[in-house]
Amino acid sequence: MRRNAVLKPLPSEDDQAARFVRQREADRTAVAEDYVELIADLLRAEGEARAVDLARRMGVSQATVANTITRLQRDGLVETRPYRGLFLTEAGAELATRAKARHELVVRFLIAVGLDAETAEADAEGLEHHASEKALAAFARFLDAHNGKRR
Amino acid sequence: MRRNAVLKPLPSEDDQAARFVRQREADRTAVAEDYVELIADLLRAEGEARAVDLARRMGVSQATVANTITRLQRDGLVETRPYRGLFLTEAGAELATRAKARHELVVRFLIAVGLDAETAEADAEGLEHHASEKALAAFARFLDAHNGKRR
DNA sequence: TCCAAAACTTAGCCTAGGCTATAGAGTGAT
DNA sequence: ATCACTCTATAGCCTAGGCTAAGTTTTGGA
Fold first, then answer.
1. Domains of chain A with CATH codes
2. Please, which pLDDT band fits residue B25 given cuts at 50, 70 and 90?
3. Does B79 reach chain A within 8 Å, measured CB to CB?
């Protein structure tokens, strides 16, 4: 039963390198996206986003959050008012909106292809940072096509 | 047209933290998986896997490869015979096999939901490390279900 | 009002994963 | 047999993203 087709040739060195480079870039932005997304969620749901709560929700120490927030401030995504919580800049809010939209899309897509809601939510956390625009478009098309049938 | 449903409540702190922790664990193993997968591919396709070639295909300097290989050796995944190339240990080969199977599954799945082969291949590079076993199982089921129709 | 608890900051440390520059080793072609 | 070229290793540096421990501020309740 084994398909003994011609072994798939390796991609060209340049193509493959380009993929890995893009990959590493995505990794670098992932943390920033997770933070602004979470800050936006907290602001919406609780009215404020405290560093302590971020630490608890990210599963990380307060010191790590402080560190990360400093970077996000440097990058113009977040503003802090000590003892008043964290706020998003224009750019931060925009990034959060895009991140959230992507997250939601990925979750809905995963559910549509048969994953339970819990796992979909958990996996989306990782997958959302690595789906290209083309992939997201494909997911959206898939959801559209299947919205007539179920739901 | 805006669905103005009740705002989705935040997940519990513990659940959310657990997701992010799992996330970070996946990130840590991703590089190792990429390396052993690539080494396996090179061994298969070219008969040998040289550090130089890894550097070119990973889009990284030779020094970085040397560094990474040292870690992989320490972790019992890779063996080196200088000027003879790199080899996988038992554990390394096993990891490579699993990684490759996952990679292939993700690629086929992405194509099945409408992505072009090129993008599927590129995106799989990132996505493969963040799909849980449950997600992979769902992808496999999806492919099975759709294999009767097309192809 | 005041003071303990909670929130935040700072210092110091670590690993992974990048880099450049340079030195050293091995191979293969002449 | 040699020597140029290729491959590998090493030194030294950097950032991100973790940690613990030990301050410092602020807040809010008694």
1. 14-147 (1.10.10.10)
2. very high
3. no
